[in-house]
Amino acid sequence: MYLIDPIVALFDLKWTRQKPQFRPLPPYIKRTFVETPGGDLELLICEPSSSTTSSTSKSTAPQPQPQPSIFFVHGGYGSAGVWLEWMTYLHSHNYSGTLYAYSARNHGASYTLPYWRMVFDTPFEQIQADMVVCLDYVTKREQQANSVARLPILVGHSSGGGLAQYLLSGTSANLKLRVKASGLCLVDAIPSFGSYDIYWNWLKHDPWFTVRSMFHLQHPSSPLSTEKLVHGAFFGQKFPVGRTGAFMRWMPAFESMGWPMGMVGDNFWGWVIGRPNIWLSARDIVSNIVGVGNGKDKVCVVIGRDDMMYRPWMWERQCEEYREGLGELQREKELAGPDKPFTKTEIIDGVASTDSEAGVRLVLVEDSGHHVQNDVYCDQAAEAFLRWANQV
Q1: Are strands 70-73 and 99-102 parallel, antiparallel or unpaired?
Q2: What pLDDT digit, counting tens, does each position of 46-63 carry?
Q3: What is the rounded distance in angstroms from the CA atom of residue 131 to the CA atom of residue 124?
Q4: Alpha-carbon distance 154 to 151, whole Å?
Q5: Is the distance from CB of 240 to CB of 231 less than 8 angstroms?
Q6: CATH number of the structural domain 4-52+65-391
Q7: What was the pLDDT predicted at 62?
Q8: How far apart are CA 316 and CA 322, in angstroms?
Q9: What is the pLDDT of residue 295?
Q10: Which residues is 71 bridged to in the sheet?
């Protein structure tokens, strides 16, 4: 593996502009495109199931508003398609809100860019702009479809979770749309304190990372250039290695370096000497989540226990920072109740353990890796997510 695979992978790496990838969709999920100055962005839309609609229409009682829409944000080397398993689960279990998943430029069926421009000339701000224009489209669509449209639930995976947190924090000053949400779910996401620890853990998992990257001429896809590397980085041990190739079929050929570099945090040397890293304020993020202090969990953190990029102290710190942010916001608004109003724990099918405390829910999915929404227990993870979404 250490000698042969990198040589073979060098010839598999792509350096030219790719074509948009039109992944096959189930009949209940439709593909549309959102126009931007650079090109069209893919947006998948899953309307509520017909059984939910028919049961609602036949009732003579006053009808409740549908649940908030859910807006899924993929991470690096992903696309809207990484959410198909969860969208299918929610649809089949009669979630009454509309589900949306978009693909950023050069991902999925969205418009593509040449290698040099995408890798070295696509800053984090442009990745932000793609999410914002699709979110604006969804907001207007929901307002037209519902007399009282609730703000969406944002669900972000990996770098997409970092992106969602960044936009909710209000840190970016050049946005046309002020991003707000009904709830925030972070799926193996870049934590609010930045990504230094994520990439340090990746380097420890893959000690040949740097050497291989030099041999591959610094191609950004070098760490994910073989099935074994993708399996080790993205999946748990129970996920069949033979299924990894089918997953790689829909990965983009290369990725923007500006996206991960925009989420590292404060001074690198401070992190090296052991100073706690700082990127975003959890308090600023939750200030743009509506309904804080109503006794519900407004933040959900989903982690695959086999995710090699995470360590227990990282998800514990992430949850604690959000609990502190929610508590601080409650005190500022002089809301009644203690900082930690309730605590509960449940076990779901012996696979996903869920702990809820002070408005933050932590879901740990056993035997699952970084792509918990695509791993062997994706349905159990979706069930835990649905339980959380139903109470938002």
Answers
A1: parallel
A2: 999 875 555 444 444 555
A3: 11
A4: 9
A5: no
A6: 3.40.50.1820
A7: 54
A8: 10
A9: 81
A10: 100, 154
Q: How many CB atoms lie within 10 A of CB 245?
A: 12
Residue range 347-378, pLDDT digits in tens = 445 567 787 878 999 999 999 999 999 999 99
224 near 251, Cβ under 8 Å?
yes
Which long-range contacts does 223-231 make (Cβ < 8 Å, 24+ apart)? Answer: 224/77, 224/248, 224/251, 225/6, 225/9, 225/10, 225/12, 225/13, 226/1, 226/5, 226/6, 226/8, 226/9, 228/1, 228/5
Q: At what angle do helices 378-391 and 84-92 cross, to 10 degrees?
A: 60
Pairing of strands 299-304, 343-348: unpaired
CB atoms within 10 A of CB 276: 11
The rounded distance, in Å, linking the Cα atoms of 191 and 362 is 13
* Res 341 pLDDT > 50: no
The answer to whether 265 and 277 are in contact (CB under 8 A) is yes
Mean pLDDT of 195-222: 94
Query: What tokens does 49 get?
Result: 């199931």
